[in-house]
Design a protein that fits this description.
The protein is mainly alpha-helical. It has two domains: 2-64, no CATH class; 70-205, Tetratricopeptide repeat domain (Serine Threonine Protein Phosphatase 5, Tetratricopeptide repeat). 67% of the residues lie in helices and 6% in strands. It has helices at residues 8-18, 27-41, 67-83, 87-101, 107-120, 124-132, 141-155, 159-172, 176-188, 192-205, and strands spanning 2-5, 24-25, 48-51, 63-64. The strands form two sheets. It has a two-stranded antiparallel ribbon with strand order 1-3. A two-stranded antiparallel ribbon has the order 2-4. Helix 5 runs parallel beside helix 7 (141-155) and helix 7 (141-155) packs antiparallel against helix 8. The chain is globular, with a radius of gyration of 21 Å. The protein starts with a strand and ends with a helix.
Length: 206
Amino acid sequence: MKLVLQHYPGCICAYRNSQSYDWYWSPWGRLSYIASIHAFATPQYNCLSIESKNGGMSCADSFRITDEDKITTFVLLGYLYVRTKRMEDAKLIFNDTKSMFIGTGLEYVLLPASSQFAVDRKDFDAALKMLDKVHDTSPAYNKTKLAKADILLQHLCDQDGYVRCFQQLVETDLSGVNYISLGEACLRILRPKAAVAALESAYEKE
């Protein structure tokens, strides 16, 4: 048995085939899932081959994935649709996933992905509103602040808003790492005095 993924549409197929009715995955479902992630993460349309050898895994083996695995799968599937310019399918996936996992505490996984989808549609206001919904107690807080900073600088040319994102990270956690990030952000937009002050604070923390 051989699985070959040469392009994103095939990758999407592998996702669908890897999901059984009760979310138990066979070994080949696992391989499809791993291959899908590989293809998604690879910029070029590379080929990944997985072959079955004598004495290999038994197809009777299976495992149940967690809710976080499920939502991550749907998020990546949405990204794959975006990569293949199937925006309506991507929108449907994100909307269905949102309704499926609302109230589970896993929204922090979906919001950054949904905001990136909005950026791909050049709907920057919607992307920022989504990212602002992430509370500072969320595991995704730092990631969403960095994503917001990137949108403000790269797409909206808002330098003050860009720096403010890093200041908010410092306010949430007065760590040396966050001060260094703030200093680097200030250097990036050519604010040397603010950068020096932030890096000095980082040195004091260390």
